[in-house]
Amino acid sequence: MQKFYIVKNTGAWMMDELVAFSERTKFSILFLRKQEIFYDDKISSLEKNGIKIYYLRDHKKYNRSKFLFCLKFLIIHFNCFLNLHCLIYGIKSLNYFLQLDLGIFESRNVNFHCQFATQPAIFGLLMKEYFKTDFSYSFTFHAYDIFVNNLWFKTLTLNSESAFSISKFNINYVIKKYNIKDYSKLHYSPLGVFPPKVIPVVRSVTENNILRLGFLSYFVEMKGIRFLLPAIIKLKKSNIRFVMNIAGDGPLKEEMISFVERNSLKENVIFHGLVKNESKYNFFRDLDLFILPSVSRGMETDGLPVVLMEAVSYGLPIISTKISGIPEICINGYNGYLIEQKSVEEIVNAITKFSENSFKWLEFSRNSLEISRKYDIKINSRMKLKMLGWE
Predict the structure, then answer these.
(1) pLDDT of 9-50, one tens digit each?
(2) What separation, in Å, do the N-terminal and C-terminal C-alpha atoms of the chain show?
(3) Phi/psi zone of residue 201: left (φ > 0), alpha (ψ -120 to 50 degrees), beta?
């Protein structure tokens, strides 16, 4: 069997899964888009592990039979194209299919695993219906691909071997939203992170009585940045001594920097930029508490943020919001505090509660490490590979 992992846009978590897979089995990767140079080191390590990588940009293999098939596909699945997002997903998938040199498939026994129930999974469906032989596919669904009104989802599930969910919340959500009657194909398969190479030292008190707070994400609205920054102002007016360490990048970066400067917060806020490898290890290691005040914005909603998996792997207590799958990893009063979304006051209150009950730090830290065992990428990838039949 020829095994293909289909990717449109990568993220750090996806690269980690690919690396974990590559340590246990051989497969090929098809990148539907050019990937960011930030991940070049991971791509190089995959190639060193013997993973063959194909880039769609290298293919321009249009032909008449594929055009005719695409027309037939569009007619058969016309109802899946009937909103703007799904029309875009469908048309882009057809274009990817038209470009690809189908000669890369060495046999007619091919299995695809597709990340997201959008273009990659639709591409898997296209391949299955085009060859009508032993082509099969599975896919993993996450957040925007189900929180949007995804007209493709039910069709993709019915025709797949398996559909993997990153959270238990998502399974219940799609069963209700998409009226899935036979949910035997739906499997809970959490993502994960590589645990730190050095086991974190569980500290019982903050250093110099300064609370070291941390926030790491892509700087967009759904991460709750517009509520976190005003919370920093309120904290500064309190008696709490703190430093907010912010890492990442994104569209709101300049606005965030400007906010800090306008409100004289430079002494309280440190921007670390993009972090990975050793710099990410140092970032998490030097924190007392991690905060991710995610908000629900329709399709722009976190599923179960991998950054929280990273935080608990370092034994950090966490503060996050009561949306989607987050309560599965942030358990109120056990390893942190779960708060209502879009509330500056709740962010401040949770940090204050933590500061005033610092004796709970050791308990929360140990509990985070316990929870992190559910999100060990090597263990979770091994389980997923078995469910895929790739081992």
Answers:
(1) 888 899 999 999 999 999 999 999 888 888 999 999 999 999
(2) 11
(3) beta
Q: Enter the tokens of residue 120.
A: 């990659």
- Residue 121 pLDDT more than 60? yes
Between the CA atoms of 336, 377, 195 and 247, what dihedral angle is there, to the nearest 10 degrees?
-70
Instruction: Note the CATH architecture for domain 2-192+377-388.
Output: 3-Layer(aba) Sandwich (3.40)
Q: What is the DSSP string of 188-216?
A: E----BPPPSSPPP--SS-GGG-EEEEEE
* Residue 324 CB contacts under 8 Å (≥ 6 apart), including other chains: 143, 167, 169, 170, 294, 296, 301, 302, 303, 304
Number of C-alpha atoms within 13 angstroms, CB side, residue 221?
Answer: 6
CATH number of 207-375: 3.40.50.2000
Q: pLDDT tens digits for 268-286?
A: 999 999 999 899 999 999 9
Q: Which residues pair with 242 in a beta bridge?
A: 211
pLDDT digits (tens, 9 = 90+) for 221-242: 999 999 999 999 999 999 899 9
Q: Where are the domains of the chain?
A: 2-192+377-388, 207-375
Domains 2-192+377-388 and 207-375 share a fold: yes
DSSP type of residue 116: S
For the whole prediction, is pTM greater than 0.90?
Answer: yes
pLDDT in tens, 152-170: 999 999 999 999 999 999 9
